[in-house]
Amino acid sequence: MMALPELLAPAATVQCARAAFDHGADAVYIGVGPHNLRARSKNATPDELQGLLEFALEKKRRVYVALNTMPGDDALPGIESLIVSLVKRKIAPHAFIVSDPGVISLCRTHAASVALHLSTQTGTFNGAAAAFWARQGIGRIVLPRELALGQVRALCSGSQTEMEVFVHGAMCVSISGRCLLGVYTAKRHPNQGDCPQPCRLRYRVSPLYDNETESGEWYTVEEDEAESGTPVRAFVFNSKDLCCLPILDRIVRAGVASVKIEGRNRSMHYVSSVVKVYRAALDSLAQGGEYAVKQEWREELDRLDHRPYTTGFYAGEYLLQDVEDSRPLPAVRIVGLVREIVAGRTAVVDVRNPFNKGDRLNVLPVRKERMPYEATIREIRDTQGRPVERALTNRIVIVDAEEGTELAAGDLLRKCEGTGKPLRAQ
Ligand code: SF4
């Protein structure tokens, strides 16, 4: 049986972390307070982290805490007091994710027993750099997305340090966040965890005017044609999203210790869905035989809010970013979370978006051995047991799904935008 790497999932909140564990993640990474690269995510409080660690311990899973900003001197005391307060309360995550040598030194001083994972932000591009970081006590290196698979393989075999790679999620058009676009457009800094993502926007390229006289050149813009056929705006910076499902077997065979899903700004639905697919893919690899991407995995990833997928730089297209046709694709809408089961097909549902009696919904099952399926909602009742035609946002309702449906607490109910049908496969 093939040895599998850890499946590592992002968590914007502890609820998201628990959902990731339920759907098959071995580990999650989460921020505590603002000192991480998702400063505007909800993140966790120390109390929530403590609860999550207890939950993870029970399930034999791991929790890593991101401390991976590049702080100035003014921000270091805040990071130090966070580390000290966690230590005082005996809250010990399985690792801190760090990028700055100053923060590494604070972790070493105050929390020497907590493992350190070096963030992709630091940029470890060669074996000498990996050896350097190993000597600093780094137990795992998160490799840059810009490496080719051969380079990943060489780093894994030439180092005692564990290597972690991204397999799914958004890509920067710059090298792992080394970018000032957000500072120019919104005075928000990626290295302080606050990128406004201007690279994701559509742009119109126009000439400069000097005293009413046109100067400079017009550039050809090929995307986003208006109905008249006139090109208007384009995604000139935006990268496609990473999806390594087609090459997951080669990534695992390269010897990585962990495969990581990007997206600490992403919803619980997104994380649950991506984790479920990669769990299924890894488990199928463990069974041996020829690895093949199943249609149902592709369909599930296509249901998510994403840009077209790419396998990124792993094929060896070093320093070539894939921006062509990178407009976001439509996604499914989450309409409810199953709170508890009354009977097999009757469930208490926490409504996130409206749905109607008779709607055909797509179920993302929490049980990791089950893939998504469709079910018609036969009846909806309010908490008093009165029949209603429509479930409204933020209400609790009881639904009866069609005969044969087996719901479970934690299942997500979804609706495909527009047509109510699953979105196209890639
Ligand atoms: S603007 Fe885009 S490329 Fe730059 S750091 Fe933000 S997400 Fe990355």
Can you describe this structure?
With 426 residues, the protein is α/β, with parallel strands linked by helices. It has 2 domains: 241 residues, TIM Barrel, CATH 3.20.20.60; 85 residues, Elongation Factor Tu (Ef-tu), domain 3 (Beta Barrel), CATH 2.40.30.10. The chain is 24% helix and 23% strand. Strands 1-2-3-4-5-6-7-11 form an 8-stranded parallel beta barrel, surrounded by 6 helices. A 6-stranded antiparallel β-barrel has the order 13-14-20-17-16-21. Strand 16 and strand 17 form a beta hairpin. Helix 1 runs parallel beside helix 9 and helix 3 runs parallel beside helix 4. The two termini are 30 Å apart. It binds iron/sulfur cluster. The site of iron/sulfur cluster has 12 residues, from helix 7.
Oligomer: single chain
State the CATH architecture of the largest domain.
Alpha-Beta Barrel
Order of strands across the widest beta sheet? 1-2-3-4-5-6-7-11
CATH class of the largest domain: Alpha Beta
Work out the strand percent. Answer: 15-25%
Class by alpha and beta content? alpha/beta
What does the radius of gyration come to?
23 Å
CATH level-4 homologous superfamily of the largest domain: Phosphoenolpyruvate-binding domains
Count up the helices: 10
Mean pLDDT: 86
